[in-house]
Design goal:
This protein is of the alpha+beta class and about 325 residues long. It is about 40% helix and about 15% strand.
C-alpha cells in the first residue's frame, strides 16, 4: 500500500513566502510546509489574491498569535488543528464570517455556534508499520498495544511541539478520562509506559534515522507523512485501522479580529475553502477534503482514502482547555 503527501520539518525560523510581498498583501499564518505554502501562494495570486504566507510549526504559530493579540500581524489563519483553533476562538481573536462554501459542509466541520472557524480538510493521525520488517500478525491492533514488551524501542515519539505528536498523545489520553474529563492515574501510568517503551526524539532527522537504521518499524504519524517516510527510507508502510479508532484532526480557517483588509480576507477564505480549490489541492498533495462536493471532485485515490480508517470519537472543542495541561504534565513529569 503506497500513500502520497508531503512530510514537513518543523523549523523554529518562520518563512515568509510571497512573490509580491508588500504592505498591501494579505498576511496568512499557516503551518503548511514550504512546498505547500509556495503552491498555495502561486495559486492564490493566479486568481488575484495578493498574499504573504508566514509558514512555521503549528505550536510556534499558535504561541505567536497569542503573543501578538494586542497588535495582530496576521489577517487570516489557516491550517491549525481543531484544539488550537478552538482555543484561539475562545480568546476572542477571530472575526465572525460564514464562508460561501459552508452550505453542505458536514456539521462536525461547521461553526454554527459562533460562525468563526470552518474546517476544510481532515488528517487522520495514524499508526502504521513497516511491512518489510514486520508481519501483519505481529503488528499491534491499536494504540494501547504500544506499551507491550515486544514493541519496546520499535516506535518513535516526536517533539510535543509538533501538532501530530500532540494529537496522538491526546488521542490516547482521552481513553483514560473520567466523568469530569480529567486523566486518571491509570492513564498517566500508561503514558509513562508509552514513553519508556519509545525512542524519543526532538527532530525530524532523528526520527528518520531511527527508521533508516532499522530500530523503528512502527510509525506514529499523520496520514501523508506515513507514505513519505516509507518512500524516503525505502519500505512499504501499512496503516492500521486501529481498535478504538484513529484520531482525526481537521484543519480550520478563520479571519483575525481587527484586520484592516476584511473584504479581501473574506474573499480569500471563500476561494481557499471552495470545493474547486480543495479538489485541486487534493489532486496536488493527496489531502482529503471534508466538503462532500470537494471529495466528489477529487481523484479516486483520495475518495478511497476518505473512508480508509475509522475515526476515533473525540470532542476536540470540549477537551481543548485540558490539552495544554496534559502536554505540560508529559513534558515535566514523564519525558
Amino acid at each position: 500500500m503506497k500513500f502520497t503527501g508531503y512530510l514537513t520539518t518543523v523549523s523554529l525560523a518562520a518563512t515568509l513566502i510571497s512573490s509580491t510581498a508588500s504592505a498591501e498583501s494579505l498576511t496568512v499564518y499557516s503551518p503548511q510546509g514550504e512546498e505547500r505554502a509556495v503552491w498555495i501562494t502561486e495559486q492564490a495570486q493566479a486568481v488575484g489574491h495578493d498574499i504573504t504566507m508566514l509558514s512555521a510549526g503549528g505550536s510556534e504559530l499558535f504561541d505567536r498569535i497569542l503573543a501578538e493579540r494586542a497588535n495582530a500581524q496576521a489577517d487570516v489563519v489557516l491550517g491549525l488543528i481543531d484544539a488550537s483553533m478552538a482555543t484561539l476562538k475562545s480568546e476572542g481573536l477571530f472575526e465572525a464570517y460564514v464562508p460561501s462554501w459552508a452550505e453542505g459542509l458536514p456539521a462536525a466541520y461547521r461553526d454554527d455556534a459562533d460562525n468563526m472557524v470552518y474546517k476544510f480538510w481532515q488528517t487522520p493521525i495514524v499508526l502504521a508499520y513497516n511491512s518489510d520488517a514486520l508481519s501483519a500478525d505481529d503488528a499491534p491492533d491499536g494504540w494501547l498495544d504500544l506499551t507491550e514488551p515486544q514493541y519496546s524501542g520499535k516506535y518513535v515519539i516526536g517533539s510535543t511541539a509538533w501538532q501530530t505528536t500532540k494529537s496522538y498523545l491526546v488521542g490516547m489520553l482521552v481513553l483514560f478520562t473520567d466523568e469530569s474529563g480529567e486523566v486518571t492515574d491509570e492513564g498517566w501510568d500508561f503514558m509513562q509506559q508509552l514513553y519508556d517503551n519509545a525512542i524519543v526524539v526532538d527532530s525530524g532527522d532523528a526520527k528518520t534515522a531511527a527508521f533508516v537504521n532499522g530500530e523503528a518499524v512502527l510509525d506514529l504519524n499523520w496520514f501523508g507523512g506515513v507514505g513519505n517516510l516509507g518512500e524516503s527510507v525505502g519500505y512499504t508502510p501499512v496503516m492500521i485501522d486501529t481498535e478504538g479508532g484513529t484520531p482525526f484532526i481537521s484543519e480550520g480557517i478563520a479571519i483575525m479580529k481587527g484586520t484592516n483588509q476584511l473584504d479581501e480576507a473574506q474573499a480569500f477564505v471563500d476561494w481557499f475553502g471552495s470545493p474547486e480549490f480543495m479538489a485541486a489541492y487534493a489532486t496536488e498533495f493527496g489531502q482529503v477534503p471534508v466538503h462532500p462536493e470537494a471529495i466528489a471532485l477529487s481523484p479516486e485515490s483520495v475518495q478511497a482514502n476518505a473512508t480508509l480508517l475509522t475515526p476515533q470519537d473525540i470532542d476536540w472543542d470540549a477537551i481543548a482547555p485540558q490539552i495544554d495541561g496534559w502536554i505540560q504534565t508529559i513534558e515535566l513529569e514523564i519525558k
